[in-house]
Amino acid sequence: MIARVVVDVAARQTDRPFDYRVPEEAEAWIEVGSRVAVPFGGRTVQGFVVGFAQEAEVEPGRLKPIGELLDPTPPLRPDLIELARWMADTYGCTWTAAMQAMIPAALKGKAERMVSLAQNPGAADHAEAAPGLSDALIAWLKRYGPVKLTTLLERFPDEAQAVSGALRRGVLAESAQVRDRLSVKKILTVFPPEDRAAAEAAAAAFPARLTKQRQALLHMLERNEPVPLRRLAEESGFSESIFRALADKGLLSIEAVEEDRDPYAGRRFTPTRPLPLTDAQAAAYRRIAEALESGKPAAMLLQGVTGSGKTEVYLQAIERCIASGRQAIVLVPEIALTPQMVERFKGRFGSDVAVMHSRLSLGERYDEWRKVRDGRVRVAIGARSAVFAPFERIGLIIIDEEHESSYKQEESPKYHARDAAVHRAGQHGAVVVLGSATPSLESFAAARLAPAAAAAESGGQADGPAARVCPGAALRSAEWLPLPERALGLPLPPVDIVDMREELAAGNRTMFSRRLREALTQRLERGEQTVLLLNRRGYSTFVMCRSCGYTAGCPHCEIALTYHQRSGVLRCHYCGHAERQPEECPACGSPHIRYFGTGTERVEEELYRAFPGIRVIRMDVDTTGTKGAHEKLLSAFGRREADVLLGTQMVAKGLDFPLVTLVGVIAADTSLHLPDFRAAERTFQLITQVAGRAGRHDLPGEVVVQTYSPDHYAIRAAQRHDYDGFVREELRARRLLSYPPFCRLALATLSHPELPKLAEAAERFAAALRGAAASAGLLKPLAGGSGAALELVGPAASPIPRLKDRYRWQVMIKYRGIVDAAGLIRQAAETLAGDRSAGDVQISVDVDPQVIL
């Protein structure tokens, strides 16, 4: 039996299956998706079985056996192996990297050097053959070996040289074993006596000196279920040794039992029942239910204004999915959204829900993943990686707030969860529901432009703008399900736009406009709550000397340092570099150091100064870094322990608090003028989403948006809650400049410690890329025509030209039609790699990038 194994080695040249012989005793256990330890290049590495073959591609004498099966149950199902292959081809990553993204961190094992006593010599011979090995070390190895070499040297640090010599002489044997970062948690559990009558008789016959044992046994006889030993000792007041003594007598049994590390253990969730649906909700639900019953893959865009009841549609669709014997996955973009979503889903489905996100402990994540793999739950909810939940029969995948850029992973593998979900749906015959009040333009195009394009083609009409849309890697078309009104019939809150230029002209130099200050005062007087948004953390965005103009910058990145007043440090938000705030200018020695720009930390300080007695909860990366911080802060706000919830974009979506009647946007221009073609789209989405937090229940809401660009179409459209109006303006610009959704993008970023070498390498890379595209017949203009079209932009310096001591240049590909963009970049990279003068050039590939900075 020959297994085809992809080894966990981070190198493009080894990113293919290698043949290994399956030991006869393991043939019944090894399957596609199994994780194994195999010999590779003189060492032992982890690998994944991706298939089997009748004959090996190497000579029989060179065929090595699989060393060890690492899991009794394969961690990856065959459909995930195929999905990983698709991700590797689509996003230009390795097959191994894609598979690693699908398993919990606890299973990302590494080979450990293990040491044991050699088999031949006796104990006396060990000491003679390896002078310096102590009797204690030899005895310890005899009892515990094989042990990790690092553990052995930690225990016997003075014998390192003797151990090295013993390994060379063969007195000690060295091996390699792949060990995981974590194992299944087991706890000692006490089981009641099987023969109760015999146990009662034994208790009655205990002598007086064993009174505690008799009482402990009688206590256990009162229970009918197993109980953890530690808890039993605490409840009964008897020590654990008493119960162990009873087990030694055969009156009780104590066994190690698996226990889940449940992040919600002890929590009670109020059960909920399905709510009546509005006509629009009911229509959307019916279409989803029909698609579920068909068993055919489908994608649907559930576009509903904020407060339109998208979550209730999700819940009832999941209930229908479960009733059909299938499973559901729910993705949320922010960990901040998870507490309220978990509350809603646990309230509806109870223990049938697994939660998967990075703020859980390593053990909790592993155990929640095992619940899914073992079929103990039917709903998984989490951030983007939950799209890989190892369900066997997926019926529904929901992506809430689908427009969020956090669904695109920024490190390899740079996949988009939306496209991975659509591909998985194709494998399972499942339905993908994309939910948002402000859909991404790619999803909008798939639902509302792609159908028009198909109709134009079938009718033989001329090629028009709609016919040239390119939504994404997997999402080609979707059905549009609109929810145009709020579920409770409440109006969307009015939005006031405040021109901060007029505020400055009127002498108001504070960060709060007169309108926002007045509105805040009214809420404090009425006991209502406010959400304030500023999508920039820290105290000041840059520090400058007013004498010489020096600006504090990161020594490793081409970016200004942000001042954090509470910690008194200047910090780089890209590489993490931190330094103490300067007392004087390091360039000229002047004491005239000033702090410019505004972050959430400074807004918090100004709130306390402007409104004495105000209670503020601040939510940003600095305050939510610890486990459970999001839930703790949001729960406190829900209990009315604060008047204002101040935060970055994590407070802009999904939150629902009855007393929030005011939303203030401190600076709407924060993202509007970034050098990114999506800047206007993100600004519109952010304002619209945060505006939707106000007036969701009985009390009317109000929104105040402060801006220096009051006439920008994104700001004006957000004021009117006019998604279609914004899209019309934005599509006009996108079509003119050939940006998504009228083409697709692939970004190659090259980096090197030396700028001149990088510039030369970037030119050679671009030339190689242009040659590869020309050879494939793809260099055609994007402006018109049919078929594949491709345009190269660059090379040019990246908008942030240096990060982590490496200069950065980029080349962008714009394309339509069937184009293997990742393959073209790979060809050019291989050409560059053959040029020795390129040196230490690293190339990063990002297909369908969400950020081009």
UniProtKB/TrEMBL annotation:
Per the entry, which co-factors are needed?
Zn(2+)
PROSITE patterns documented for this protein: HELICASE_ATP_BIND_1
Domain (Helicase ATP-binding) ranges: 291-449
| UniProt xrefs under CDD domains | DEXHc_priA, SF2_C_priA
* Cofactor note as given: Binds 2 zinc ions per subunit.
Origin, by domain of life? Bacteria
Give me the segments passing through the membrane: none
The protein's annotated catalytic reaction(s) are: Couples ATP hydrolysis with the unwinding of duplex DNA by translocating in the 3'-5' direction; ATP + H2O = ADP + phosphate + H(+)
List ligand-binding residues for Zn(2+) 2. Answer: 554, 557, 572, 575
Q: Which GO terms describe its biological process?
A: DNA recombination; DNA replication initiation; DNA replication, synthesis of primer; double-strand break repair
InterPro entries, from UniProt?
A: DEAD/DEAH_box_helicase_dom, Helicase_ATP-bd, Helicase_C-like, P-loop_NTPase, PriA, PriA_3primeBD, PriA_3primeBD_sf, PriA_C
Binding residue positions for Zn(2+) 1 = 545, 548, 585, 588
Keyword Transit peptide attached: no
Residue runs in coiled coils? none
Q: Quick one: signal sequence residues?
A: none
Q: Could you state one GO cellular component term attached to this entry? A: primosome complex
Instruction: List the PANTHER family.
Output: PRIMOSOMAL PROTEIN N (PTHR30580:SF0)
- Its family? Belongs to the helicase family. PriA subfamily.
Name of the protein described by the UniProt record? Replication restart protein PriA
Q: Which organism is it from?
A: Thermobacillus composti (strain DSM 18247 / JCM 13945 / KWC4)
